[in-house]
Amino acid sequence: MSKRLLVSAIVGLLLLSGCSMPVQTGSINEFGEWEPDRSIEIIAPSAAGGGWDTTARMLARTIDEENLANRGFGVVNKPGGGGAVGWAYIHKRNDPHNLFISSPPIHFVALNGQSPYGYDDFTPIANLIADYGAFAVRADARWDTLDELFEEMRETPESVTVVGHSSPGSMDHMQFIMFADAAGVDITKIRYISDQEGGAMTAVLNGSIDIVSTGVSDAAEQARAGKMKVLGITSPERLTGDEYLETLPTGREQGIDAEFIVWRGIFGPPDMSDEQLAYYENIFKNTSESESFERIRNMYGWDERFMDSQEFKAFLDEQSDELEALLNELGFIRN
């Protein structure tokens, strides 16, 4: 059985199992505000230790330590299908006591047909943090800027090989595609190699691959050591708070009208009421503004990027449209 069929089967079983489970909806207090009637689960749709898990646990810890809610917040891991198993669990339960953390893969997995659920099947509550990507080459590579790289690729896009940790049509691949497309490169001819075993940096350092598309922190670690140089990062403006990171140029300042934000936000089930949404929106806003969570952001190198539900939804709509168009052009979407 193929991986995609296996994921679909797992999701299907989750949809069928327990579908008559009663939903606890909480209550409205004397001030007309919704309140939960039990503790809250934040689902990390991944194994322990990854970005979703870490973000969820830091959120839950901050809320509990700062007494920002009248109920406890806990984290439950539900890995599988690149997030699809966790999303099916939330959608099936449709319970306001179950939330989940997500990031751009919720676009990719749905658009690639690996899950029946996308961001618009849930309630976006708030975005909390942002991280960014970077494009790095070996220290002695012939390019010093993204502009030089893309100038060559506009003539011969197939002459450059790109590597990333994610699968084709997902994060590392698509952040490079977005920038190449904005620079006028024929994206259908770009050679992308997926290395999910951790060998992407090594492949660039030994000269077998030209450029790595990865996270800023991963690229910066190698560049600080003098082994690589960062041609550009995907943030809308230069990063602050670290002397070296402040030196890394954005694509925009090199004339490339693109950005890619590796956001992480909180979603709820599909049928949340306005009162339920307001309850959580307020908690996560207070969490984002707390000194405790600011320290956590600094510790992990996360950028503050709070968006309320309305802003978050508009941002997701725009990002989804852009990614769908690019995936369509690359042939990842079958109409």
Automatic annotation (TrEMBL):
This protein's UniProt keywords: Signal
Signal peptide limits: 1-25
Family named by the database record: Belongs to the UPF0065 (bug) family.
Tree of life domain: Bacteria
Ubl conjugation among keywords: no
Protein name, per record: Tricarboxylic transport membrane protein
Keyword Signal in record: yes
InterPro entries to which the protein is assigned, alphabetical: BUG, Bug_dom1
